[in-house]
Amino acid sequence: MNPYLLGFLAPFVVSLLFRNTKNGKKRGVRVDVGGEPGYAIRNYRYTSPVETAWEGISTLAELFEQACNWHKDRPSLGTRKLISKEMEVTKDGRSFEKLHLGNYEWFSYGEIFEAVCSFSSGLVQLGHDGGERVAIFADTQAEWFIAMQGCFRRNITIVTIYSSLGEEALCHSLNETEVTTVICGCKELKKLIERSGQLDTVKRVIYIGEDEIHSDVSLAERSTSWTVSSFAEVKRVGRENPVDADLPVSADIAVIMYTSGSTGLPKGVMMTHGNVLATISAVMTIVPNLAHTDVYLAYLPLAHILELAAENAMVAVGCSIGYGSPLTITDTSNKIKMGTKGDTSVLRPTLMAAVPAILDRVRDGVRKKVDAKGGLSKTLFDLAYSRRLLAINGSWFGAWGLEKILWDFLVFRKVRAVLGGRIRFLLSGGAPLSGDTQRFINICLGAPIGQGYGLTETCAGGAFSEYDDSSVGRVGAPLSCSFVKLIDWPEGGYLITDSPMPRGEIVIGGPNVTLGYFKNEEKTKEVYKVDERGMRWFYSGDIGQFHPDGCLEIIDRKKDIVKLQHGEYVSLGKVEAALIVSPYVDNIMMHADPFHSYCVALVVASHDAVEEWGLTNGIKYIDFTDLCQKKETLKEVHGSLIKAAKAARLEKFEMPAKIKLLPNPWTPESGLVTAAFKLKRETIRKEFSEELSKLYAS
């Protein structure tokens, strides 16, 4: 053979052989467990669930103190300097707040430890008793983390509440846990004042913020019996009057986390220090080369276990954590003033956690820019993407080696700049990530996406895909802190004896499985069980299947399955995941009725995509709401959904027969989705009951 040809082919052959080796890798293996019979898998590297990764460390307070001692002079928590706020008025008269933000200002680990100790002492001076609970009701920021660790140093249980939680759920959470001290942000203080008459046990409020909320502070002091203090004031008092720590033990409850819940009032999940530490210890094994040189962007809700566990894991190894927000994350984010850089451009993180909704938006934003440029730019992007896709799929003609470097330089370098250009690992959780988005982000960012599966009840621990697993649509093997078991669900037709893969309800066991629901013994007994060997299991209600290599795939959910008039079963979540890839869809909720033989869908329109289609096709309309009601628009969007359904090989009865196109997005603030952007089905059904009735009647 020609030696030049051999030299050219060598990288492709090596890559192909390497991929075949990886594809044959056993990532999870069978394990004998107690309790209900099922098909159980453990992580291939660990024979028993991991409880801690650090000798002598059994609580989050000990882990934090150790990190501060080890990394005393390194940058710890960073916040961007606010230069100015401005109101921008659009052509249609709507006003939007825009922020001019500067660089990150950093505190060292030593300084953060001092702040935590001061805040902890300040709580005591304020009169907060060790047996009372503290609620944190604020957006993600450095003060949130400091407050949490300050409480842990006094063995105070914190109650976490989403800043977007509705009035009824907020009052229920605070009253049920008998919270006496609330730590809140500026806008949350207003919510508390408005509902002060409904809060039975609150005595003290600590607000995060400065001069701009003096009027609200005065109102709170006049209209309530609360003691109102600023965060800075509590730290100052504590610094001047230090109090010794009262550290917790592993079995003490660290957090009562109120899920935003897709149905009904939220439930408070009781997490011990040992529960959360087990998940953090497992995270150490899945992020490659996690070290103090990494920079993490924190912007997801700290009231969500995904973010809380992630930030504690980052601190454990001395990473720098820069705080941002979903509204300022990129240069084109809604709250970023024109000409001002977004959080990722300034911070240039190496690690990020994300929920699928945010990754979907990144994908759609990149595609929109590429399509808008057209010409040579679009041709190059499409070619580069197809070559990388061939490589990942194991083709001989894929873009490996020098060709990969070329495409990265010519095409994907610009895409990576959207998230700062240095991302080396992305963690996705909170909801299923579509295979299309996972592959797109992976190729464009050139970094692996670790897709995880877990629940609040398991401290986010369950399963996680490894960095060298190039497959999509799966959530990997069990984490090192967990065993994952499938049990039969005969009613839904899922059995562990199914071929080619065992299927069933997912049950998770291990030290990360929480104690249960606060003051809800009945529900706790329903979904938590301890087997004869002492292992605690949580019954998730999700349906999964195990691949031959021991990796888990989520394929259904018990609550999402509806039986149609003629006996066909429709998995609403599965259909939604298939249809949301349509470029016209920002969000979608399928609806099935047992008294009808077909499904319908509520579709939140992607403003840019639908409007662009309308302009391109000469559709005359008054405003976006009017455009969404046009017959031509409905036909176009419905056709796109059917195309996506066919591509996903859905059955005809699974495809939406009729749709309602909605102009306004579903946000956590609207109460229609959770903080992790999961659908609140019952809330949406009630909100749009009239529209749904019309779809079935027409």
What would you note in describing this structure?
The protein is of the alpha/beta class and 698 residues long. It has three domains: 224 residues, Luciferase, Domain 3 (Luciferase, domain 3, Roll); 291 residues, 3-Layer(aba) Sandwich (Rossmann fold); 134 residues, ANL, C-terminal domain (GMP Synthetase, Chain A, domain 3, 2-Layer Sandwich). Helices cover 37% and strands 22% of the residues. The strands form five sheets. The protein has a nine-stranded mixed β-sheet with strand order 4-3-13-12-14-15-16-17-18, with helices on both faces. Helix 3 crosses helix 8. The termini are far apart. The N terminus is likely disordered. It holds the Pfam family AMP-binding. This is AMP-dependent synthetase/ligase domain-containing protein. Keywords: ATP-binding, Ligase, Nucleotide-binding, Signal. GO terms for molecular function: ATP binding; long-chain fatty acid-CoA ligase activity. Belongs to the ATP-dependent AMP-binding enzyme family.
Layout of secondary structure:
Layout: H1 3-23, E1 28-30, E2 39-43, H2 60-70, E3 75-89, E4 95-108, H3 109-126, E5 134-137, H4 142-152, E6 158-160, H5 167-176, E7 181-184, H6 186-194, E8 204-207, H7 214-223, E9 227-230, H8 231-240, E10 253-258, E11 268-272, H9 273-283, E12 295-298, H10 305-316, E13 320-323, H11 343-347, E14 351-354, H12 356-373, H13 375-392, H14 401-416, E15 425-428, H15 435-445, E16 449-453, E17 463-464, E18 477-478, E19 483-487, E20 503-509, E21 516-517, H16 521-527, E22 528-530, E23 536-546, E24 552-557, E25 561-563, E26 569-571, H17 572-579, E27 585-592, E28 599-605, H18 607-616, H19 624-629, H20 631-647, E29 656-662, H21 681-687, H22 689-697
Parallel strand pairs: 3-13, 5-6, 5-7, 6-10, 7-8, 8-9, 12-13, 12-14, 14-15, 15-16, 28-29
Antiparallel strand pairs: 1-2, 2-19, 3-4, 10-11, 11-21, 16-17, 17-18, 19-20, 20-23, 22-23, 23-24, 25-26, 27-28
Helix pairs in contact: 2-3, 3-4, 3-8, 9-10, 12-15, 13-14
